[in-house]
Amino acid sequence: LTDLTSFEKLEFWAEQAKQRTSEDTLKIIVGNKTDLLDQRKVTKKIANEFVKSKGKMFKYIETSAKTGENIQELVNKISNYYLETEQTEIKTLNLENTKKSCC
């Protein structure tokens, strides 16, 4: 949030993430250093617009590693996504196994 050059490099990294992961892989962009508001260079609006332009699997959260702000929320967001994905895959596998054993 305090380094405009770092934010500008996100275009490259977002494209790398798109190319190297499946479409349904969650990608979270983390704006760090919310504790340095007086040095902020990237507004929340600009960051949200950028993330929105990248697609539905890109999410955004602002944190402070120094104060711990939103760190737990970030971990929860990641955990919840993968728990939901895991449950969906298990259900799919169970349905396939049921069909195979019935035939």
From TrEMBL:
Pfam families: Ras. Signal peptide: none annotated. InterPro entries: P-loop_NTPase, Rab, Small_GTPase. Keywords: GTP-binding, Nucleotide-binding. Gene3D superfamilies: P-loop containing nucleotide triphosphate hydrolases. The keyword Zinc-finger does not apply. The keyword Iron does not apply. One of its GO terms (molecular function) is GTP binding. This is Rab-like protein. It comes from Trepomonas sp. PC1.
